[in-house]
Design a protein that fits this description.
Elements (H helix, E strand, L loop, with lengths): L3 E14 L2 E7 L12 E4 L11 E9 L4 E7 L3 H7 L6 E8 L12 E6 L6 H10 L4 E7 L9 H4 L3 E6 L6 E2 L6 H5 L4 E5 L2 H13 L3 E5 L15 E4 L2 E4 L6 E3 L10
Parallel strand pairs: 7-8, 7-11, 8-9, 9-10, 11-12
Antiparallel strand pairs: 1-2, 1-6, 2-5, 3-4, 3-6, 4-5, 12-15, 13-14
Length: about 260
């Protein structure tokens, strides 16, 4: 898939919750095909301490309006600078990057699991799954009620189950503690979030012989497989998360192949 290096125009910037925001950008040339799980590398300007581009998952794509949405957590000067962009300003991106989630077949039962900002790629994935004739279920986990991100768009696509570690909203505990996670006979489970969460989901899927794909959130400096800082050990050797991933089948990852 051909990559672009382009200045896109910010059309909207809205807060989702404590330290999180969604920024919408549009391309004067129209958006190329963007697959669920792919990401962009963002150039941060006017931030003297930010030297490298920042990788951000594609949250959503609307071809009718020509806009792409990026869900961002403020984690340092770079993302803080992006959070202050106003409509009309430019954002330079390299995109679309990486591989994508595989789409289930008709009639399969699928669960999309996300922890915190890890819910970012699941919205576009949910849309593509619906296009394939499958009804997705979303399980979203957060630390507590104050950290819950706006998930109204997810509810438009399917059932949403919430879990919080302290029980202040939804089920108490982790996503893997949800009765729906353990009791339903899922054909596929997709996951993105903190590594401990993804490892727990992967281990459960391996024990139950459930197809599972995870989107890794490794540090990526270049996004095109040159710097080798996002290497992940797999059964096929060391691979770059940015070009061979970020989506991997858990059976191919050495950190969790034993279950």
């Amino acid at each position: 898939m051909k990559k672009r290096v382009e200045d896109l125009t910010v059309t909207k910037n809205r807060r989702l919750g404590e330290g999180f925001f969604v920024i919408d950008v549009s391309s004067a040339d129209g958006l190329p095909e963007i697959l669920p799980g792919q990401f962009v590398q963002v150039l941060v300007t006017d931030s003297p301490s930010t030297f490298l581009r920042r990788p951000l998952s594609v949250h959503d794509v609307n071809y009718s309006t020509g806009t792409m949405s990026l869900l961002v957590q403020i984690a340092g000067p770079g993302t803080e600078r992006i959070s202050r962009l106003n409509p009309g300003e430019k954002l330079n991106l390299i995109y679309p990057l990486g591989n994508s989630f595989t789409i289930p077949g008709k009639g399969e039962k699928v669960l999309l699991t996300g922890g915190g900002c890890g819910m970012a790629p699941l919205l576009l994935l949910g849309r593509k799954i619906i296009e394939a004739g499958v009804a997705p279920v979303f399980a979203l986990g957060f630390r507590n009620r104050s950290r819950i991100l706006d998930h109204d768009e997810f509810r438009k696509l399917g059932e949403v189950i919430l879990a919080t570690e302290d029980g202040s909203e939804g089920h108490k505990g982790f996503i893997t503690d949800l009765p729906q996670f353990m009791d339903n006979d899922w054909d596929r489970i997709y996951c993105c979030g903190p590594e401990p969460m993804m490892k727990a989901v992967a281990a459960a899927c391996l024990r139950r012989d459930i197809f599972c794909e995870v989107s890794l959130e490794n540090l990526m400096a270049c996004g095109i497989g040159v710097c080798l800082c996002c290497i992940v050990p797999t059964t096929s050797g060391n691979l770059c998360s940015c070009t061979d991933g970020p989506v991997f089948n858990v059976r191919d990852l050495k950190w969790q192949i034993s279950g």
